Amino acid sequence: MKIRAALTIALFSLLAACGGNDKPAPIGAAIAPNFRDADPVDFKQPAPSRFAVHGIDAARFQTSINWTTARRNGVNFAFLKATEGGDLLDPMFKSHWRGAGKAGVARGAYHFYYFGTTPEVQAR
Q1: Phi first, then psi: what are they for 74, rounded to 5°?
Q2: How many Å apart are CA 90 and CA 109, to the nearest integer?
Q3: Which of 29-38, 49-58, 112-121 shows the lowest mean pLDDT across its residues?
Q4: H-helix or E-strand containing 122?
Q5: Distance separating alpha carbons of residues 106 and 82, to the nearest angstrom
Q6: Percent of the chain with pLDDT over 90
C-alpha cells in the first residue's frame, strides 16, 4: 500500500508539472503573435505581420474574450471602448478592463464620439 500511495503521489506531481505556466507574461514583455488576420486588407508595406507588437480593440460586441489565451498568443495591448455619445457606458468595459489587466495585457480606454451629441455633453 505504501508503494501504491507513493506512486500515486508521484504520478499526480508529474501531471501537475505538465500543466504549463498559467501565469501571464508581465506587462511590457512583448509576445510574438501566434495568430493571423482571417480577413486581410490590402495593406501597404510594411504589412502588419511584420510588426513585433500586436493588439486588439474590444467593445460590447466581443462578449467573451479569454484574455489569458489572447495574451499567450501575442495580444500585447488592448484598446477598450468605455463610453459612447453622451449616455452610453459600454456594458462590457469593466469585464474587459479587469480581464485584460489580470492577463497582463496593457490596456487603454477610449470614448466613441457620436456626432449627434454635443461635445460638451460627451466631455461630461
Answers
A1: 110, 5
A2: 11
A3: 29-38
A4: helix 119-123
A5: 15
A6: 46
